[in-house]
Amino acid sequence: MIIPTIPTPDELLDKGFRRGKKAADLARTSKIPRRLKSKRIEEIRVITACQVIKDRLKMILDRVPDIETLPEFYQDYIDITVGVDEMKKSLGALNWAYGIITQLEKDYASKIRRSLPENASSYQKQAYGRIASVVNKIKKDLDFLDFAKANLRNMPTIDFEATTIVIAGFPNVGKSTLLRQITNASPEVADYPFTTKGIQIGHLERNWKKIQIIDTPGLLDRPILDMNEIELNAMVALEHLADAILFIIDVSETCGYPIENQYNLSEEIKRIFNVPMIYLFNKMDISQMNKKENDKNTDNEIELKNVIDSSKNDYDANISYLNQYLNKIDEYLFISAYEGKGIEEILKKLEKVEKIEEDNSQMENEYEY
Ligand SMILES: Nc1nc2c(ncn2[C@@H]2O[C@H](COP(=O)(O)OP(=O)(O)OP(=O)(O)O)[C@@H](O)[C@H]2O)c(=O)[nH]1
């Protein structure tokens, strides 16, 4: 989200007062009856200062998008990153300052106009004092908006037209390797709160269908109970986006997590996201090698070799240890992200994922952790 540059109160006042002075200097050289001149000068000074400060505030208010009109993902994103309530409060404070300065401008212009010429300058000083006090009152709001600007600068660019697939699975199971394989290019990386490596978004198009694949390293990769509240919120933000989950299980367990734990995580994530889940049993290449090592000199050797050499489905014969999981799931594939095997089958499955239209009437998510 692009928030314009936010001035400090001093910068805002300096600019207003400097321009006020300039306008007053100009008025000094104009041809006005002497008796009126001092009043005219001070009136112009006050009006110009107010206008300049108001213009700046209005520019900020106009350029910051109305948070409620943004897609839910961005609302959640802003909430997690800087806080939607604080953001609204700060913008409200700027609006308040705008209103008060408008009033001061009117009051003091009229006071100066009706004053004795010798009093004009003291009214102008009074006006400046009050303007400064209003602007200083919104110091923390300006500070907050400046903080929000810095933190929302690198917001992920989400394509809300595309079907969105979210990748999940324990660390080191091959999520980024897979993302690179599927999208055939380096995915974009943008900041995402509470993931150390940022969100990664890959895009692809199949039969005119736009698909975006999102990986959030460090988020959907451990038991839900280990997550703090903010991480849970981050997950809810993703939940608004996901049309399906690609859950990756490292069958070689070289990631350091037993298959059973990996499968349990998938169940938790499935419960929360409530969208179709496609299981990818990854690293089948090393699973085969391990098996081959173990089975050396056994009767299985020839049979297994045939399986490995077969180009059609290398992995079929070697999956009995996965049966307890396969019995419980609908959609799965055996792949090797590293060797690029199974990628075409994944793409075929992704093509069939239906896009879920965002339902704005459904305000809250009803699930329990
Ligand atoms: N043998 C083999 N290695 C793989 C395969 N897929 C990934 N790897 C390796 O596994 C390691 C982890 O892969 P990553 O893609 O970084 O895993 P990740 O899940 O993105 O890891 P985090 O970013 O920590 O969540 C890397 O060394 C990969 O080369 C595979 O299919 N076969």
UniProtKB/TrEMBL annotation:
Q: Which InterPro entries match?
A: G_OBG, GTP-bd, NOG1_N, P-loop_NTPase, Small_GTP-bd
User: Does the keyword Nucleotide-binding belong to this entry?
Assistant: yes
Where are the coiled-coil regions? none
Keyword line: Nucleotide-binding
| Domain OBG-type G residue range list | 163-355
Keyword hit for Nucleotide-binding: yes
Q: Name one Pfam family in it.
A: NOG1_N
A GO MF term = GTP binding
According to UniProt, the name of this protein is GTPase ObgE/CgtA
Q: Name the species this protein comes from.
A: Methanobrevibacter cuticularis
Gene giving rise to this polypeptide: obgE
